[in-house]
Structures are given as structure tokens and as C-alpha cells.
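Format notes (please read before filing issues)

Several people have asked whether sequences and C-alpha cells are stored in separate files. They are not. Every record keeps both together, in the order shown below: the sequence lines, then the C-alpha cell lines. Line labels are part of the format and must not be stripped during preprocessing.
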Amino acid sequence: MISHRDDPPLPDEAIIAILEFLQRFTECFENQYYGEIHRYYEERSRANRKAADPPSTTNDQPF
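Then the structure lines:
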């Protein structure tokens, strides 16, 4: 996290304006790039599942 203790404090109204801008920007960004974001996480999830699956063997004898 970025912290600048020497910076002067912002007024409450400025903090809220920045927060609302960032929230709206994030919403618009997610709407614009939903497909790309979804594809990225889906591929990542698929790769994680594949890596977590133990290798299958066809001659695995039961105990």
C-alpha cells in the first residue's frame, strides 16, 4: 500500500469524489473488458485444476 505521511490530508469531500470516480472507473473497465477478464480467470482456474489433479494410471490396482 502506498503511504505518504508527509502529504497534507485531503478534505472528506475530495476523498469521496476520488472514491466514487475509482468505483465508476472500475465498473466501466469491468464492463468493457468482461470477456477478457473472464477468459483470463477461467484459463487460470483450469490450469490450477489440472495441476492439482493427480496423474492417472491405467494399471492402478485397488488395495
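For reference, the curators noted about this record: The two ends are 53 Å apart (CA to CA). The chain is about 65% helix and 0% strand.
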